[in-house]
Amino acid sequence: MTNAAHLATVNKRLRAAIFAFRAKVVMAPFHAEDLSTFVTDQVGKCAPGSADRVLRDLRQTGHLNYEVLDRANSRYRFLPRKTT
After folding, report:
1. Are 78 and 27 in contact (CB under 8 A)?
2. What phi-psi label fits residue 56: left (phi over 0), alpha (psi between -120 and 50 degrees) or beta?
3. Domain range holding 27?
4. Alpha-carbon gap, residue 24 to 20, rounded angstroms
5. 84 is a domain residue
6. How far apart are CA 43 and CA 48, in angstroms?
7. What does the pLDDT average to over 15-30?
8. How far apart, in Å, do the first and last CA atoms of the chain sit?
9. pLDDT of the residue at 83
10. 72: pLDDT strictly greater than 80
11. Is residue 25 part of a domain?
12. Within 13 A of 32's CA, how many CA atoms are on the CB side?
């Protein structure tokens, strides 16, 4: 497997875990650490910050929407997807 293929596979697994986390918490506030722990439990050990990076990418591409409730404490809440 090439490095690019491996990264694509890991990214796909991280995305699936993030969507599972979103289904679990719905719109309840959560901390970034909660997301990271859940993702690690689902996919195994991954690079620090990977879940955050993929979460931001999902938001940027319009697949998920969330708001930052408290940046200093890394507290977030999912919102309904934006419609265009």
Report:
1. yes
2. alpha
3. 3-79
4. 6
5. no
6. 13
7. 96
8. 37
9. 67
10. yes
11. yes
12. 17
> Which two tokens mark 6?
């491996």
Cα(50)–Cα(75) distance, integer angstroms: 17
Looking at the predicted structure, is the pLDDT value of residue 74 above 90?
A: yes
pTM for the model stands at 0.89
Task: State both tokens at 14.
Answer: 């991280």
pLDDT confidence band for 3 (50 / 70 / 90): confident
Output the domain CATH number for residue 75.
Answer: 1.10.10
Amino acid of residue 59: R
DSSP string, 26-50: TTS-EEHHHHHHHHHHHH----TTH
- Are 74 and 33 within 8 A, CB to CB? yes
